[in-house]
Amino acid sequence: MQRKIKQIFFEKPTLEGAGVKLKRVFGYHQVPLFDPFLLFDHFGSDNPSDYLKGFPWHPHRGIETVTYMLSGKVEHGDSMGNKGIIDSGDVQWITAGAGIIHQEMPQFYNGMMKGFQLWVNLPAKNKMVPPKYRGITKDDIPIFEKNEIKTKVISGVFKNVIGPVKDLQVDVNYFDIELLNSSSFEYKIKRHYKTFIYVIEGNGYIDKTLIQEKQCILFEDGDSINIKSKDNLRFLFVSGEPLNEPVAWSGPIVMNTQSELDIAFHELNNGIFIK
């Protein structure tokens, strides 16, 4: 059964970090619509004052954070000792697990700095796994290209092309897809996997519904997805297995119960957060 559109979401201006202007596509108020996905932000500006204050040192527990840079540079560092630059086309995939403290500081960029951050919830049994860092360069990301369809496979499998992000706590497919001219994207998927796309640029059709830039389309359950480009279309495709578990969420920490949250913030305030 081909999937139909369940709901279309529009991003909203949000201020985060030390004063970064970004667009929130979905977040706290959409749980559990997107389960296992918690939050999706689109950040981008050609005005450095919108982003240079960045995201100074802050904690995470119980989630994974996925940062995908289309253009620009972000300097990062964390409590595990990782540090470096997330450059144009790169991906940073962090399993916070039991806890990390890190910072992400966008650097001056002469042009449109643009990227995305996705939060993936962790199942209760894996909330307190040891943290893990994955830095994926643009050269590490395989591309499937055929008949005016170009797919960058970040995680999951597309047409036997396997993404570089493996051994995840939650099964996630994350693709960056470009459709040229009036080509079509077809993908078979597990019926119950939660699936959405975010239109980066261009427009196209799902059935007879026109989809446009900066729209997030959440799909109903089904076995396959079909998206057709009207001219040229670029979008992110994300799907994952729902957890169907209670969510207790406060700021950068997501657990299953309020008592677990209380413990996390007690540990943070007393300097025993990092295990």
Into how many domains do the coordinates divide?
A: 1
Distance between the first and last residues' Cα = 46 Å
Total of helices: 1
Q: How much helix is in the residues?
A: under 10%
Shape: globular
Strand content: over 45%
Uncertain ranges? none
The largest pleated sheet is described as: 9 strands, antiparallel
Helix and strand string, N-terminal first? EEEEEEEEEEEEEEEEEEEEEEEEH
Structure write-up:
The protein has one helix at residues 258-269, and strands spanning 5-10, 12-16, 20-26, 37-45, 55-60, 63-71, 74-78, 83-86, 91-95, 100-106, 113-121, 132-136, 143-146, 149-155, 157-158, 161-162, 172-179, 184-188, 194-206, 209-212, 215-219, 224-240, 248-250, 253-255. It is globular and about 55 Å long. By secondary structure, it is mainly β. The chain is built from one helix and 24 strands. 4% of the residues lie in helices and 55% in strands. It has one domain (7-269): Sandwich (Jelly Rolls), CATH 2.60.120.10. Strands 1, 13, 14, 17, 18, 19, 20, 21 and 22 form a nine-stranded antiparallel beta sheet that branches. A seven-stranded antiparallel beta sheet has the order 2-3-4-11-6-9-12, with no helix packed on it. The model has no long low-confidence stretch (mean pLDDT 96).
What descriptors fit this protein?
single chain; 275 residues; mainly beta; 4% helix; 7-stranded antiparallel sheet; Jelly Rolls; 24 strands
